[in-house]
Design goal:
With about 60 residues, the chain is of the alpha+beta class. Helices cover about 20% and strands about 60% of the residues. β1 (about 5-20) and β2 (about 20-35) form a beta hairpin.
């Protein structure tokens, strides 16, 4: 049984076109999860309906 808590920084990009101009919004969010795959699944479920969403790099930030 693993009781350690881990926090991951999940980077993402959102592509959209507005008035003929291509815009890219970069962002990141910190999420607590048991593994990188779990963090990835949680973010994809939360942001899957956003058109132009692309998941980026996932890095472990903290473990306690």
């Amino acid at each position: 049984m693993n009781n350690w808590k881990k926090e991951y920084e999940v980077c993402y990009q959102i592509f959209n076109v507005s008035d003929g101009t291509k815009n890219i919004e970069y962002g990141s969010i910190i999420i607590e999860a048991g593994s990188k795959d779990e963090a990835k699944r949680a973010i994809e479920l939360q942001l899957q309906n956003i058109l132009g969403f692309k998941l980026g790099k996932i890095t472990k930030v903290w473990e306690y």
